[in-house]
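As described in the Methods, two query proteins were run sequentially through the folding procedure within a single session, without resetting any intermediate state between them. The first query and its resulting C-alpha cells are shown here.
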Amino acid sequence: MTYQTSAQRFADLVATVPIVDTHNDFPYLVRSQLHYETENDDQFTFDTGLTCHTDLVKLRKGGIGIQFFSCFIECKDEDPLYQDFNKATTVVRDTMEQIDYVRRLAERYNHEFSYVSQSSDAIKAFKEDGKMALAMGVEGLHQVDTSLAVLRQYFELGVRYITLTHNCDNPFATAASSVSGGLPDRGLSDYGRQCVREMNRLGMMVDLSHVSVKTMTDALEVTKAPVIFSHSSAYAVTPHLRNVPDHVLLKVKENGGVVCVNFFPEFIYRTSDKVATIDDAVAHILHIANLIGWEHVGLGSDFDGIPEGPKGLEDVSKYPDLIMQVMEHSDATDKQISMLMGGNVLRVWQENERIAQELQGEGAKLIDDNWPDREWKFFDYVEEFPEVYPGSFQKKKNVYTSQPLDACEGQKK
C-alpha cells in the first residue's frame, strides 16, 4: 500500500496496533498533590482535561492502547547513599496506596479503562472492547522492604514489572545514582540473583532502568526471561548514567528484551544548551533500532514524573507526532513501526508469562529466602511459646526485647 502522508500511515496502524507506554507517573502526582482524595473533587476533571501530562483526553488523542502506570514511592532515607536497609519505613503501605489508586482509576473510568494483569487481557481490551488497558509497575525493590513475600503479593495484586532499584541501593542491587555518588558498583547481590529467579518464576518482568551497569549485566546473565528497561535511553547518544551503554544493548538483543525510550530532556538532549526536542527522542529510538534491531525498542515516556517533556513531545497526546517523525526519519516498515509502538513490549510480557508457566510446570519451587542481614525483632515472651519442632528456636537468629507475656495479655484486655 502506498501512503500519501505519514499521518495516513499512522492512522491505519494505530487502529490495530496499541501504543504501549511502560512508564507514566500520574498516580504519584495525585498522591503528592491531592493525597488520593479525588472522588469528590470537582476540579479533578480527568475525563475532560487536566493541566498535567496525562488525562483521558490526552490519552485518547495520543492513541494509547496500553498504559503501565508506575506505582512509584521514593527511597525513604534523606541520604540517597544510605546502606541501612533494616531501617523501618512506610514504603510498603505507600506502595499499596499507589496500587489502590490505579485500580480506583480503572474502576471510576471503566467506560474508557480496563484494569489488566495478563497480556491477553490487555490485547482483548484494546482490540475487542475498544478500551485502554491499565497495567502496573513498581519502581524499585526498596518498595518490597527486603522481602520476597511482599514482591509476591504485589504480583497477586497485578503488578507486572519491578525496577530492580530506584535512586538508592537496596539489598538486591546497586543503583546508577549510587555509582555516580561515589559508591562501588557491586551489581546484583546473591539475594538479588534469587530475587530475579523468583520474578522469572512468577512472570514478573525484570526492569533494569535506574540500575548500575554491573547490575544490568549481572541481571542479564541470571534471568531466564527477557527484560525491559521501562524508561531509559541510549548512552551513546546522551552519555548519562541513566541510559543504556551499547555493550549492554547488545546483551539485551541476546536476551530478547526491550529498551523503552525515556523522554526526560536531561536524558536525551544532544546540544550544549541541554534543550531537548522530539528529534532527540527520535535519535535515541533510531540508535537502538539500528544497533540491535527494531525488535528491541519501545516507549517509556516518564510523563508526569518529569517537569516537562521535550519540545514537540510535551504530553501523552503527542505520541502520533513521535511515531510519524520516526516514520519520516527512517525506512522502517509497518511491521517495525508496530514493534516500536507496542509489539515488542507485548512480546516480552507474553514471553515472561510463558517462561513462568514453564518453570512452574517443571516444579520450580517458590524461593522463600530472606535477606541474610535482616534483623528479626520480637518481644522475649515468644520464647515461652511451643516449638514448631524440636530445636526450631535455635534455627534462626533473633533479637529479643523484654516484655512479659502477661503485660501483653493485659493490653489485650
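Immediately afterward, the second query was submitted; its sequence and C-alpha cells are:
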Amino acid sequence: MKEEAVVAVVSVLEFMGSWRILRIPKEALKPLELSGSSRRVVCSINGSKPFQCALFPVKKGGYFITASKQLRDKLKITDGDEVHLEIKKDTSKYGLPMSAEFREVLRQDADGSKLFHAMTPGNQRLSIRLVDEKSDGDKRIRRAMILLAYLKYTKGKFVYAAISNALKKTIPRFDVD
C-alpha cells in the first residue's frame, strides 16, 4: 500500500481556537489515490503508533488532520513544532478497529447488525468508540448489546447523547424524543 511522508507544523485552527491541526498540501496526497468523499487515512506522527483519522478539506486547498491534546501530550508536541507524518489510505471496513466482542454481538444479532450497518459510517465509528472504549471484554459485550437494543427500540435512529446516557446506567433507559 502506498504511503506518503509529509512535513507539517502544529498550528491553531483559526475559527476553532482550541483545535490544533496539521496542514497537508493536496499534492502530497495525490499518490494515495483518495477518491470521492473517502478521506479516511492512517497516520503516524514522528514514528508514533499509527492511528486512524480523517482528512478535512481547507478552502484554500489542501487538507488538515486534527491533533488532540491527548495526542499532543503523548507525543510531546506543541504549537509551532514541525512534525513528520507518514500517511496511507485507510482500507479498513469501519475506519477504526472493532473489538472481537462487538463483532460477535453483531454476528449473533441479525436485526441489530442490520440497523448498525444501515447507519452512516460516522455513526458506525461513534458506536464503535462508545462500545470499545472499555478495556474489559464483558463491559464491551454489555455495551454492544445495549447499543443494538437502543437501535432496535428507535428503529435505527442514532442519537449520541441518548445512547451515551443509556450506556452509563446500570439498567439502561432509552430517553428519546
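The chain has two domains: 3-89, 100-168. We note this only descriptively and draw no conclusion about the first query from it.
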